[in-house]
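Box 3.1. Reading complex inputs
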Amino acid sequence: MSTTPARSRTRKAPAERAAEIVAAATAIAREGGLSALTLRAVAERVGVASGLVAHYQPSMDDLVARVYADLVEEEVRDVEAVLADVADPAARLGALIDTLMDGEREELTVVWVEGWAMARRSEPLAGAVRAQMERWQTLVERIVADGCRSGAFATTEPGEVAWELIGMIDGLNAQSLALGTDTSRFALRTARAAEALVGARPGSIPVRS
Amino acid sequence: MSTTPARSRTRKAPAERAAEIVAAATAIAREGGLSALTLRAVAERVGVASGLVAHYQPSMDDLVARVYADLVEEEVRDVEAVLADVADPAARLGALIDTLMDGEREELTVVWVEGWAMARRSEPLAGAVRAQMERWQTLVERIVADGCRSGAFATTEPGEVAWELIGMIDGLNAQSLALGTDTSRFALRTARAAEALVGARPGSIPVRS
DNA sequence: GGAGTAATTGATCTAGCGATCAATAGGCAA
DNA sequence: TTGCCTATTGATCGCTAGATCAATTACTCC
């Protein structure tokens, strides 16, 4: 009665199965946040017994951290791809703001906010969160430092300014998530604030809207 | 064997007991975040059977929302008390930044971030989060509007600017929580960004450090 | 001082989580 | 075709969560 009727057992190469499991986990997290990422949810999505997921993963904490890192990593790469086409530092910073605040990153914002909250209870996740934040910081610092070299920006602490910019943008995204509003309405104002932070001429950082 | 040895049953007036339970719940949330706020944790802290907590609370979701609202409400009042002594709008905004970013609000930041994350799974909490954000927004908007009247600030949208300021500050606090660093190092820079947002003369918003 | 009210207990139910492991069976090598 | 290796199963354990409710008992009022 309680046994699941049938299951056509398919045997795969360990590497393939492991990849399948991580892929399913990533999809679940993207759709429902990190809190939806459970052993059984992954198993069901792959179409496999729950024990198999556990077999391929040392612990769920590790899988969650891994998925978090993968998702943010992918986001960083997306943004880097967008910025690659933009040469001017001011325009690059504007494109960064536009991209991160275009109102179509709600799914990632959920992951981001849940990461902050859950990191307090999971050491692996805490590490992943810190690492991925530094990833972002490095990316932004480079833009700011470039601007300083070209004379468009003027600050003696590009690293600190980068942290501040990231914190601002994340906070506004999180707020929009909680309120159910669109972040993009903050993009223009954020550009003005960014100019003050990097020491750019007012109006020199262009954003779409 | 499994029964707890003894318990001196003390009977109290419903109102008193209810208050006791809410107080204990608030203390737990302050110390360990909203995720530490469980039926049994509250019962243990009050020194009472778990069933009694359930008896006084329609559901834990409601209690969590209530506690969240109480905690933020108290924070808002604290800040209002600090700002009451400051007449000048620019100085008021500076005092707001100083107070919210003095690095001693970690406990509240945990509640705040967990609130964002948990609100997705709890309708009562989602309502409380929205309500308390509006509380903050009203407070900040008033400062900005005052500044516009006095000529210290110049913006046509004090309400939107208020949202932006709150989002920024919350984001920086959350980031500092995740990184384990001190928010206060962002206060000065945040004041510069705030000047750009409210349309104040650079350097006109004073902060402590 | 006795009775009745209702505050309080604590065992119990359901549900979900991660983790474990003996048993099973798929697919490749010989 | 046969046999072995191991990928896979699924039942099960231990834990924690919120919720429920019949039984108990502390207090108040007459």
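In summary: Confidence is low (pLDDT under 50) at residues 1-5 of chain A.
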